[in-house]
TrEMBL record, chains A, B:
Family, similarity comment: Belongs to the ROK (NagC/XylR) family.
Domain of life: Bacteria
UniProt cross-references to InterPro entries, sorted A to Z: ATPase_NBD (IPR043129), ROK (IPR000600), Tscrpt_reg_IclR_N (IPR005471), WH-like_DNA-bd_sf (IPR036388), WH_DNA-bd_sf (IPR036390)
Annotated organism of origin: Paractinoplanes globisporus
Domain HTH iclR-type residue range list: 19-62
SUPFAM superfamilies according to UniProt: Actin-like ATPase domain (SSF53067), Winged helix' DNA-binding domain (SSF46785)
Protein name: ROK family protein
Pfam families membership: HTH_IclR, ROK
Length: 388, 388
DNA sequence: CAAATATTGCTATGGAGTTTACAAAGTACG
DNA sequence: CGTACTTTGTAAACTCCATAGCAATATTTG
């Protein structure tokens, strides 16, 4: 049982609650009339009227004066959530690239900045590249750091509560990097660092293939396998931020799974190690026997770790994402078949639809969650960038 | 992101919310004065006064007139939550026994009934025994079925949303039993059927060794291995009720783990298969070499499945419970050692303190949760047994 | 016995939402 | 083109809830 806050409510808090209710009803909606809001919220029309005007004067909403009216009766004034009152940033710091998304409070991406980074870049130069691209993104979007309400950065490896990746990370030298502190010098708003698999899982539920599901196992499949878990609609971090790291168990074959692709016979020597997998998938699609065998072995190994997660959590959906999701057409069917042999209750298996942007999108979503949480706990004053 | 209910609040709902706040403050507390309640809830003293009197007149609270006062000033009237306004029942239907606990709304057990059942009893006779013991428990406690606000029954095997164990259960013939419907004929209140491991996990967090933790992996260790998961303080059922069934994965050695104990060389033929494990644990404690080896092999196998759960969920605590938890002194140290080799972040490992009652206790807790949920969503009218 | 302290009961005040009523601004139709 | 109808916007009256402040009461302490 969750510990409930024991706190009484007075009338000003009542107004605040109802204002938040109206804001919720307004968000992610086309401009809405007072009557519609009244029926959605269950409040009376005059009450909503007062609240809506209050939201306009405090800056949370804007008025849309009636244009060409289409129905009978007096045309209604409409109210719209002012999503541009604040902005958030989501970043994906990957091995090869850094991707920055800047979005408004409705999650509409207003600017994108991408830049490639050498896979073996040392932490200092990677951080420098991050600083540069962040500055460029802000500049090009016509914003300053103080316009940003929350920043989330996705990195590989489990992230602890302080935002560090001390347990393990494939980025060279990254164990000692304190990314959260580094960015806190550049932003006054909350800065969150989170594991890339977890963020991609969030994205898949927000705008991807699992929008309908509350219990999701997300697989980030690439040269490294990872997983992100959403349980009861909430991203699961684990007590130390290491949830979903089933790949560390040797009995589960995730560590070695991608090597079936890399070591597949027949890969031309001209193809680098990073592109071997793509070559094998293409060859398998063309009917190459060795390639098909390699893919099947790969899927068999992936299925074992996936089965462990499915048995542990009994999700509604398993989403196959990450770099290899471009080859989901080859993977999904055998993955489904292998999984069926191993689990008690078979979940749906779907392919990711978001591709390479999923981590940065998930970072956006987490930043928006942070903003929402403040909004709905602290209350509605004037819309300004929150400080830590 | 959880979907929030969009509903406005008017003044009567405000009063209801504040009444619930006072009830929450009153529960699990010694009798409390109005002034104390006012400071805890943040409401004004007159407001609390009115609310408290309302609770008394509706039957949710009782007045304790001031007795010998210990402080200066006028002695204050005190209010107490009327836990006896309703009662709940928690049942453990095990292979060998049925245990029934009857408790008030504070979870105080007011009556216990236990009865052994043959392990190979057919479903009909097991259900008959259940009916009998339930009737006897109600009679001896001086209650009728209509006094009961919620009933929860724990059974082995994964339980789906409708309360059936269709996927798998070790109880003979139990696949086709519809326990929820069976009991619904005997009670008008909500009836919940749930997996025994999950219930034991709840109990351990409520009154056991994991009261401080919000992220728990509970192991029900006996001749069958099972697990119950509490994540973010909430019991995790999984989409189809099959969460925690990691034992079904062969790569994880839970199915065969107990056989190391049963097949240990040196077990006297006079010892039956059900008591072999106890004999081996005792022998190991006395220094028997074969027995120690058997225990170590057992623990090694248990550790693999546990590691899978720990890696998947990254819990704060692993609780070793179930029948074998009596031998936790032999298991805990090697389990800790083996686990440390396999996981990324080491959780605490603790032994269960509840013993054989844990499943029935957890059933009580779930029944109380059901009552609470109704209370805090439907609102406070007069305290009467809820109907489905 | 009086002073100090704390609780209880009562009244006035103000804030928030609802209901009711009515004017204003459109459309539909003869 | 004018009337009937529909819906919106706004104001006033009313109800309900919590608060603040004050008087009355009960008990301890010196």
């Amino acid at each position: 049982m969750t510990e409930q806050v024991i706190a009484g409510t007075d009338l000003s808090r009542l107004r605040e609650l109802n204002s938040l209710t109206v804001v919720r009803a307004l968000r992610d909606q086309p401009p809405t009339t007072v009557t519609e809001l009244a029926s959605v919220t269950g409040l009376s029309r005059p009450a909503v009227d007062v609240i809506a005007q209050g939201l306009v004067s405090s800056g949370w909403a804007t008025v849309v004066e009636p244009g060409g009216s289409s129905t009978v009766g007096r045309p209604a004034r409409r109210y719209r959530f002012r999503a541009t009152a604040g902005h958030v940033i989501g970043v994906d710091v990957g091995g090869h690239k850094i991707l920055v998304l800047l979005a408004d409070l409705d999650g509409n991406v207003v600017h994108t900045a991408r830049r490639s980074v050498a896979a073996d870049a040392d932490p200092a130069s990677r951080l420098a590249a991050l600083d540069e691209i962040l500055a460029a993104c802000l500049r090009d979007a016509g914003k300053t750091a103080s316009d940003i309400w929350a920043v989330t950065v996705g990195v590989t490896g489990p992230v602890d509560a302080s935002g560090k990746t001390t347990l393990f990370t494939p980025l060279p030298g990254w164990q000692t990097v304190d990314l959260a502190t580094h960015l806190s010098d550049r932003f006054t708003c909350p800065v969150i660092v989170e594991n890339d698999c977890k963020l991609a899982a969030l994205a898949e539920r927000w705008r991807g293939t699992a929008r309908d599901a509350n219990d999701i196992v997300f697989l980030l499949a690439g040269m490294r396998m990872g997983a992100g878990l959403i349980i009861d609609g909430v991203l699961r971090r684990g007590f130390g931020g290491a949830a979903g790291e089933i790949g560390a168990l040797k009995a589960v074959k995730w560590l070695t799974a991608p090597s079936h692709l890399q070591r597949c016979p027949g890969v031309p020597p001209t193809v680098g190690p990073d592109d071997a997998a793509a070559w094998v998938f293409n060859a398998a699609r063309d009917g190459n026997r060795d390639a098909r065998t390699a893919v099947n072995r790969y899927v068999k190994d992936v299925a074992i770790g996936t089965a462990a997660l499915v048995l542990a959590l009994d999700p509604q959906v398993v989403v196959f994402g990450g770099g290899f999701s471009r080859s989901a057409d080859l993977v999904l069917e055998p993955l489904h078949r292998e999984l069926r042999k191993l689990v008690l209750r078979m979940p749906e298996v779907r392919a990711s639809t978001l591709g390479a942007d999923s981590v940065a999108l998930g970072a956006l979503r987490l930043a928006l969650n942070e903003v929402d949480q403040r909004l709905f706990s602290v209350g509605l004053s004037a819309p300004v960038a929150p400080r830590r």
